[in-house]
Specification:
The chain is α+β, with helices and mostly antiparallel strands. It contains 18 helices and 30 strands.
Length: 725
């Protein structure tokens, strides 16, 4: 009976989906027919959220059937507010609003709203190095997105308008508003809403007031943010309570003293700021000269004193930099330093210690004015400014809580946010003041707000949008962390060790070079993010630190596909890593995992000019199987194995590969899942693409990951035990 009831529900759901889809398609056709007559731009929708088939904020809209439950819940919360998100708008189409048709003498597309977007891009994305117009004409992959919500600033997403050597798809977000905002909407104007003022000087009284009021409100009305004292005190702290003339380094502070401190998160920037050394320890305990400190340290002390704190922790002054034993011991305690600090001060806008963050803001963060013709002879002033937070569509410019897809993907703007060490410093912070280039952003365990933002503020409490497993949380952390840069390869694991120590897995599982023993098989299914398939992502320095099966062996970002309804088909026989130093979550010098499961030896072909990577095998009748795409871990080279005539795939440790290649490899199956949750659905198999290790004879190394192999790859495989290094 229950199965019959479920079937009836499925049929009803299918009928509703079909009806909603028909309504959506009808609205799309209607917009194209009526819109062209009424002057509605089919590209930008006249920068309004109304009248588009993808507008949500209406009941019974088809989007509720197409997206995941987490996003559906979020959109239902916003269902009373008309909202439109347009993605992948062609800049070539936008430029047509400027181009004159030689036959008619009129613009090819007479849209003043598209011309406004072009004028904005001229002001922000034309300089001596790059022009968005040239990039468009050269067919470069730049595109525009729009987030239009009634009563909110209009957000423009600008993809690949700027260059970043680390991020493949760089993005800049701009917001449109008016000052002052009219009490009622102006006919013919883009849909815009209120914003808060952004100070031109971070040292201003307005900024200091925002900083202190945010902390005061948090301490007074956020039970979740209440400080939990457990007696932990850092080994060393800088005493700042006696004023700038009485600074000194304090050590051997007895635990249980109820001491509060601010911890600084900052960029070293390739330089070497004033540091604690064995020889300087005695003199710094006597006195620290404020004028000799770099600008970012001075600013941290100023902020701490403004907040009434007596102690500051700064890594270079609280860890003995020329004592390896002390560095390893204190690096293992950094998680506690940042997670138990009263507040973390993030010098996000400073690329190096000598650049202050308490200073005048650079001009690029100040608003620009554009005159827009709402009707013949009538112009209104529209203000545009660059956002300091990349916008999340469902929040219309507000980052979502931890462990949501937006949290793992979007990044704040500023030099510090590209640095690997600084990820865990902000992740662990109970409350943090981000001195970003565009604004001061205050975050705590309850909410997030910035100086130029109006309430309501986004909630930062995790788990409000559905259950996220500890494994999924860790995958999101690694994804966000590996999108950042590190100066030293040996820091890859130490720089995330603090975050690892507070994960639920730390109480139930062994930590294995960035993976966890209880979810090891699924953790192994990481994939390198697109963009560098032709470069040697594993250098010799990586090889000396992390095994190939660990994401820490990569000099690039990694991610995981969603893992729902997966059935494991392999087992772990043994897993070991060689930990270097005293921190079990820190640096390793290699490691071996031994797995039992099915392997299928195959051919591997790679064409780096076409960015294509394939695996296939020879069937029993001599024919070739269908070629299957896989995600390579980076540039590969054919290696030779003693006593074997054929070559075997290996990771490239030295040079960029530029030639097509064909060699031998192996597919080791980890798990299977199904395309559809029905009995008739065909299974798809996933696992690792393996080559032979050139350094450890008889052992294999990971060279890629594959997710969508048909069942013949598994059925024709052989059961083996493999050791991967």
């Amino acid at each position: 009976m229950s199965s019959l009831f479920n079937s009836a529900k499925d049929v009803a759901k299918g009928v509703r989906l079909a009806a909603d889809t028909a309504v959506w398609a009808g609205n799309a056709v209607l917009r194209r027919v009526i819109g062209s007559r009424n002057g509605l731009c089919l590209i930008c929708n006249n920068l309004q959220p109304y009248g588009h088939e993808n507008t949500f904020g209406r009941p019974n809209h088809a989007w509720s059937q197409f997206i995941d439950p987490e996003q559906t819940a979020r959109r239902k919360e916003l269902s009373s507010v008309p909202t439109l998100v347009l993605e992948e708008i062609s800049t070539k189409k936008l430029l047509e609003s400027r181009e004159i048709d030689p036959e008619t003498g009129r613009p090819k597309r007479n849209c003043k709203y598209c011309r406004l977007l072009c004028d904005i891009f001229d002001a922000y994305f034309i300089d001596e190095w790059m022009s968005w117009i040239t990039e468009t004409k050269n067919a470069m992959p730049i595109q525009v997105g729009l987030m239009i919500k009634e009563g909110a600033p209009l957000i423009i997403n600008c993809w690949n308008f700027t260059y970043d050597k680390w991020f493949q798809n760089t993005r800049v977000d701009l917001e449109l508003y008016m000052v002052p905002m009219p009490l009622t909407p102006i006919s013919g104007a883009p849909a815009m809403g209120h914003v808060g003022p952004r100070a031109a000087d971070v040292r201003s009284e307005e900024c200091m007031r925002f900083m202190k009021e945010s902390v005061r409100e948090c301490c007074g009305s956020h039970p979740r943010c209440a400080t939990q004292t457990d007696g932990f005190v850092p080994t060393r702290l800088i005493y700042v309570g006696g004023g700038k003339d009485a600074l000194k380094l304090c050590d051997a502070i007895p635990p249980g003293q109820n001491i509060t401190w601010a911890a600084l998160s900052h960029c070293w920037g390739g330089g070497k700021p004033l540091s604690l050394t064995k020889s300087a320890l005695g003199s710094l305990k006597e006195h620290i000269e404020f004028s000799e400190l770099p600008a970012t340290f001075q600013d941290a002390i100023t902020v701490a004193q403004e907040l009434g704190l007596a102690y500051v922790w700064i890594d270079s002054l609280c860890i003995i930099q020329d004592d390896k034993t002390d560095w390893e011991k204190e690096a293992a305690r950094m998680g506690s330093v940042y997670s138990r600090a009263f507040i973390v001060i993030s010098g996000a806008s400073s690329p190096n210690p000598n650049t202050p963050y308490l200073q005048l803001r650079e001009g690029e963060w100040l608003p620009k004015r554009f005159d827009f013709p709402v009707s013949p002879g009538v112009n209104i002033p529209i203000m545009v400014r660059q956002r300091h937070l990349l916008a999340a569509p469902l929040e219309q410019g507000l980052l979502e809580p931890p462990f949501t897809s937006s949290w793992a993907t979007l990044k704040k703007v500023g030099p510090l946010y590209a640095r690997g060490w600084c990820f865990q410093e902000s992740f662990l912070a109970p409350r943090i003041l981000n001195f970003a280039p565009g604004a001061i952003i205050y975050e705590c365990k309850t909410h997030r707000k910035s100086e130029d933002q109006l309430p309501p503020y986004p909630i930062t409490v995790p788990g409000t949008l559905g259950e996220v497993t500890p494994m999924e949380q860790w995958h999101m952390i690694v994804k966000s962390y590996t999108s950042r840069q590190l100066t030293f390869v040996s820091d890859k694991l130490p720089a995330i060790a603090g975050a690892a120590t507070i994960m639920p897995q730390a109480k139930t599982s062994r930590y294995l070079a960035g993976l966890w023993s209880e979810t090891l098989l699924l953790d192994l299914l990481w994939q390198v993010m697109p963009g560098r398939a032709h470069t040697p992502l594993m250098t010799k320095e990586h090889e000396e630190n992390a095994p190939t099966w660990s994401w820490a062996s990569m000099n690039w970002g990694v991610t995981w596909n969603p893992m729902k309804s997966i059935q494991l088909l392999a087992t772990v026989v043994d897993a070991q890593t060689n930990v270097v130093g005293a921190n079990p979550y820190g640096q390793v010098s290699g490691g071996t995992i031994t797995l039992r499961g099915r392997i299928k030896y195959c051919k591997l072909s790679a064409d780096y000019h076409k960015n294509q990577h394939w695996v296939y095998y020879t069937k029993a009748d001599g024919s070739l199987s269908r070629k299957q795409h896989f995600r390579t871990d980076g540039a590969l080279v054919p290696g030779t194995i003693s006593g074997q005539p054929s070559t075997f795939a290996c990771r490239s440790r030295k040079t960029t590969s530029g030639n097509a290649m064909e060699t031998t490899a192996a597919f080791f199956c980890i798990a299977k899942t199904y395309w559809l949750k029905t009995r008739q659905a065909l299974p798809i198999y996933m696992g690792l693409v393996l080559g032979m290790s050139p350094k450890f004879p008889g052992h294999m190394e990971r060279v890629g990951c594959v997710w969508q192999l048909p069942e013949d790859w598994y059925d024709s495989g052989e059961e083996v035990t493999v050791a991967i290094v």
